[in-house]
Design a protein that fits this description.
Chain lengths: 114, 109
């Protein structure tokens, strides 16, 4: 079974703090994704990566950055957290066959920015 | 207009009934479609892929209508455990999948 893990299930941070969300997958997948999910808006893609050290902007990259130094790990960074970044953050991965292959999700991190 | 649109529901359906919901997409250059299921406070998980010829997996049937640009999900003999949010997902020829906002289904005993 594919396993995608995220470093925290719940996180509370203050406005202006730098926040790191970590994601690790154990299936040697090439592609990794970061989404946020908000009521009424669904899942929105923040950033994705198709290889180590490669990254591409998704639909809502503003206020975020990412890092992929190792194939199994994809980090999402909030440089200066703001209250409008309070959300559920979901990491996903998929295999080499293409981005339109099945994506496997981690359990999510609920971030509250005060 | 959103690339993938779904009726958010909620659909409240008695146990044992058949329920169907549709999803429309706006980009005719679509290449692949999926239905994902998301339980409350859990991550989305793949329910089934949607093929042009239609496909069935037990009580679940998915169909694609390219002419009218919609996909559908049919659940027969619904169970209490089918209660969840169902996400319609499309791939439109680029690197990304686009998720609908989901249709919430509650099966009533």
């Amino acid at each position: 079974d594919v396993k995608v893990t995220q470093s925290s299930r719940y996180l509370v941070k203050r406005t202006g703090e730098k926040v790191f969300l970590e994601c690790v997958q154990d299936m040697d997948h090439e592609n990794m994704f970061w989404y946020r999910q908000d009521p009424g808006l669904g899942l929105r893609l923040i950033y994705f990566s198709y290889d180590v050290k490669m990254k591409e902007k998704g639909d809502i990259p503003e206020g975020y950055s990412v890092s992929r130094e190792k194939k199994e790990r994809f980090s999402l960074i909030l440089e200066s957290a703001s209250t409008n970044q309070t959300s559920m953050y979901l990491c996903a991965s998929s295999g080499l066959a293409g981005f339109q292959e099945t994506q496997y999700f981690g359990p999510g991190t609920r971030l509250l920015v005060l | 207009r959103k690339e993938v649109e779904q009726d958010p529901g909620p659909f409240n359906v008695p146990e044992g009934a058949t329920v169907a919901f549709n999803c429309t997409y706006s980009n005719s250059a679509s290449q692949s479609f999926f239905w994902y299921r998301q339980d409350c406070r859990k991550e989305p998980k793949l329910l089934m892929s949607v093929y042009s010829s239609g496909n069935e997996d037990g009580r679940f049937t998915a169909q694609l209508n390219r002419a009218s640009q919609y996909i559908s999900l049919l659940i027969r003999d619904s169970k209490l455990s089918d209660s969840a949010t169902y996400l319609c997902v499309g791939g439109f020829g680029n690197e990304k999948l686009t998720f609908g906002t989901g249709t919430r289904l509650t099966i009533i005993p």
